[in-house]
Design a protein that fits this description.
The protein is 39% helix and 21% strand. By secondary structure, the protein is an alpha/beta fold. The two termini are 29 Å apart. Bound molecules: flavin mononucleotide.
Length: 195
């Protein structure tokens, strides 16, 4: 099964992208194929002009179409998700996430906006017809450290949430493959963000 890692940070280096690729590495270790799209690497003018026929945007959209699941990451910008991520989501077809599982990740400067994924991004993913949006994972900058010497250092609480999120995603993928349309959605009461 194919998993797309969609990065929504305009920055490089990027904490949220590092977290995303950490999740991708874990999925690779479990034998899943992953592909990457970084919204910041797509042609800016084509994104801003919503140029649906641009070749690079079409190639990125094809990776979305081929994916069984999308892990999407974003920094919190002004209490919501990033603008560059929105420009990419805007050029997807209205049902562009139909049949797909989505795991949202975000990093933010503080815990104040830890619900941004749920009140801002989740409705957009739902409007794109995502089959199942897994509980989001949110980390503050202090919980994600990176150094040349030691690489990525993730707070134990977030590391645990990532392990749970990956387990939830992989079990959901198996359920999706085995049950098709009888896939059970997660109840709203089971949704939770973490920091
Ligand atoms: C323009 C801008 C707006 C931001 N707005 C918020 C915000 O509203 N709430 C918050 O918690 N952090 C905010 N931050 C901090 C970033 O979300 C945080 O540093 C994040 O980890 C950056 O992720 P990145 O390195 O992947 O881009 C903002 C940062 C920038 C540059």
């Amino acid at each position: 099964m194919n998993i797309l890692l969609l990065s929504g940070s305009p920055s490089n280096p990027s904490r949220s992208t590092r977290l995303l690729h950490h999740v991708g590495d874990r999925l690779n270790e479990l034998g899943y194929r992953t592909a990457r799209v970084q919204a910041r690497d797509l042609p800016a003018q084509a994104l801003l002009h919503a140029d649906f026929n641009n070749d690079e945007l079409r190639a990125a959209k094809a990776l979305v179409a081929q994916a069984d699941a999308v892990v999407v990451s974003t920094p919190v910008y002004k209490a919501a998700y990033s603008g560059v991520l929105k420009t990419f989501l805007d050029i997807l077809p209205q049902d562009g996430l139909s049949g797909k599982l989505v795991l949202p990740l975000a990093t933010g400067g503080s815990q104040s906006h830890m619900l941004a994924l749920d009140y801002a991004l989740r409705p957009v993913l739902a409007s794109l017809a995502a089959k199942h949006i897994l509980p989001s994972i949110y980390a503050t900058d202090a919980q994600i450290e990176w150094s040349e010497e030691y690489g990525l250092n993730i707070d134990t609480t977030i590391a645990q949430r990532i392990t749970e999120g990956i387990s939830h995603l992989t079990h959901s993928l198996i359920a999706l493959r085995n049950q098709g349309n009888n896939f059970d959605a997660v109840q709203f009461t089971q949704l939770r963000c973490s920091a």
